[in-house]
Every structure is written in C-alpha cells, then in structure tokens.
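idk why but the lab printer keeps eating my pages so im just putting this in chat instead. protein + flavin mononucleotide:
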Amino acid sequence: MNPVDLLAQPYTLPCGVVLPNRLCKTAMTEGLGDAQLRATPEHVRLYAAWGAGGVGLNISGNVMVDRFVIERPGNVAIDVRHPPSVDADARARLSAWAQAGTADGAQLWMQLSHAGRQSPRYATRQPVGPSAVTLDMLGSYKTPRALEDSEIVDIIARFGAAAKIAQDCGFTGVQVHGAHGYLISSFLSPVTNRREDRWGGAIDNRARLLIECVRAVRAKVGQAFPVSVKLNSDDFRKGGFSHADCLKVVELLNSENLDLLEISGGTYEQPRLLGIAGRSEDAVAVRPSTRVREAYFLDYAEAIRAVARMPLMVTGGFRSREGMCAALTSGALDVIGLARPFCTHPDCARELLQGRIDRLPAFEQQLHLAASGWRSPTSPLLLMKMINVLGAQGWYYQQMDRLAHGRPVDLKRGILRSFLRYWWDDLGRALRLRR
Ligand SMILES: Cc1cc2nc3c(=O)[nH]c(=O)nc-3n(C[C@H](O)[C@H](O)[C@H](O)COP(=O)(O)O)c2cc1C
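predcted complex ->
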C-alpha cells in the first residue's frame, strides 16, 4: 500500500467506533479555562481549527476531576462534588467545545486526570498523593498529603462521573491519564507510592487506582463508547515505575476492554515525553537504539505489543511520513500520536494525509538548541534546565493561545520571552481563580 494511503486508512476500535485515519492529536493542556475552570469560546475556536485540519482523533488537554488539585490555572475541571462546575452552563460550554471539535468528522475524546502532587504551589493549597513525597523542583511544589482510603475511592467515582458528563456533552470518547507523574501515575511508582495498604506495594496494588478508574469509567459510559488509557512505557527514574512494571500493567489492562492504549514516558522530573532528559542523578538511561529512532518510545512499544491485546498508539517524536509508515507497517502500533506540530500548524494532518508534505513542522529542536546554548540538558543548574523546559513548553502554550484567539502563530518568539510570559500568564490566572 502506498504510504499516504496507509496513514489515511480508517481503524475500527474494539467498541465498534471507527477512527477516520491513523493520526491522533494527543492531549495538550490548553490553559484556556475561565476563572471557574469552565470551557470557553477559545476552546471552541481552537478545536474547530484542529477538527477542520484533518486529524482522525483529537484528545483534549487534561480535564481535572478535582478543582482544588489542578495541573495549572486555566485547566477545565469537571468536579462532580462542586455543583457549579457541572451545572447547565458548564455543560453547555462543554457541548459547544465537543460540537466544534467533531463538526468535521474527527473523534474528540476528553482526557480525564487528577494532578496529584504535580500541582504547583500557586494553583493548589494542598496537593495530594499516595504518600507524602515532595516533587523537588526549586520549591514550586508543596509536599502532598497522603490520601485516605475513602478519598481514593471518591476519586475513582469522580473519574466515572466526569466521563459520563463528557459523553452526555458530545465528546466521542474518554482517556484516563495514567502517565507523566500525575496522580494515577504516582500511584504506579514505588518512588512516590510508599503505601502498605491495598493501594501500595506490589504492582497489582499500585495499579489498582488505574484499573478501578478504568472500570468506573467503563461502567458509566457503556460498551459502545471508546475508553483509552495513557501510560508510561517507563518513568526513566531510578527506583520508579519501570518498563517491567509497565508490561505487567498492560497485562492487567488486557482484561478491561480498552479501545486504545497510548504509550508515552517520563514525568516532570524526567520529561522524556518531550524527548528531554531530567536530573542525571535520578535518571534511567533510554535504550541506545531508541536514541537513533525518530520516535522516543518505539522500542518499548514493540515489547508492549507482545503482551497487549488492545490497539496501541505511540506518542512522542514522530515527525516524518517515512517514520510513521515504518512504525505502522512493522505492526508495532495502530495509531500515530502527535502533539507539538499542531500548536503551529493546525491543519498539518491534512497536509500529510494528502501527500503535500513529508515531514511535520518541528520547532522543538531549534527551541532546545536555543536552550542548549545554556547547556541546560546536562547542566547542574536546575534553574537553567527549568527555563529550557518551561520556556519551550510556554512557547507551545502561547502558539495554541494565539490560535484559540484567532491570531497568527508567532514562530519568531524567543524562549526567554516564552518563559517569562508563561509565568506571567499562569500567575495572573491563579490570582483570578474563583473556587
Ligand atoms: C504544550 C503541551 C501540553 C501537553 N499537555 C498534555 C496533557 O494535558 N496531557 C498529556 O497526556 N500529555 C500532554 N502533553 C504531552 C503530549 O501529549 C505528547 O505526549 C508529547 O508532546 C510528545 O509528543 P510530540 O513529540 O508529538 O509533541 C503535552 C505536551 C505539550 C507540548
């Protein structure tokens, strides 16, 4: 089959829903929520642009199930314990968002998450986690409070209830965020989960929160609705959630009727999801063969494929048609996950699918190049590293924000300006929060 046709091939999920093609725009936190953490007209504009851009599946940025423990101000929250965040107005806003994102035939799934300990000081008074293990990043994060058993049970119910609201409002699927160090992922890691009860210890116990959240979601949305999980192939953190743990969790997920498993990797401490190495003292090396491949987690995905019985998507680093087609042809995965190119080129999927481009636009290398002048990837100076990572992240946020406001992207924006603007925007939003 010719490569263009391969990417354009529809894919039928186990629940019966058909993805129009093999390209997915994966979750990217938009920061467009209002002071009450509700969806806004900016979500509508951004997702309409992405929906019209030809991607088969679009996954929303992380939507919080607890409005008091959030990943950043500007998140959307569906907090079923707080009636105003699920009232008619909040639902109408979600419906407008879903309608805009699906109008051109794309699937639009909502990513549901709980930030856990990765909730910055300025966004939350009291982060929570499996255990009181602090995220050590220049004092930006408070020590989380270890959750009580009854609170964990409540969080599971929140995931189920939020998924039902997403479905009722017109989202065409949901994804449970089990990656990147947020609450569910922190339960999976022995570094952050020191519990000795049914939620800690052996991997079956550490995975219990993830499995129970998936069950709660499935119970609420029914069998015909897509349910996905995003999971780390490895945390790349010494003593943390390992690739062997991941394979065990995939085996557990095999019994849960999943429609798509998305593979990523890393946490705030080791941001390998973005292709960046974190603090060297804690790091687990990536496999040498992975370093020479375009996509970050392909080697890991091949091992996961050997045990997984659900469809697989791999996200991180894919940029060339050649790389994507080779991965699909090898049988290692079914769907290609892509994120950053959509921040600057919302219609890049169509360009690729119609054979007009062979490579997606990529700015991360030049952003990190700019930052590597500061020697941050290997520098002992954590501040430099944070400017590098957050500046690059801010650069992408600000491009999305411009698209959401109907403004042209600004490719010349520098990394330091992006970093400063990131803090300015997020702190301003934090001050305006009404909770
Ligand atoms: C600006 C930005 C925001 C992101 N927000 C999320 C998020 O809310 N949830 C999530 O699972 N991943 C998030 N990610 C990670 C992406 O989904 C993806 O895994 C990562 O960017 C690697 O893919 P890429 O190389 O194609 O960009 C984010 C990435 C970026 C750049």
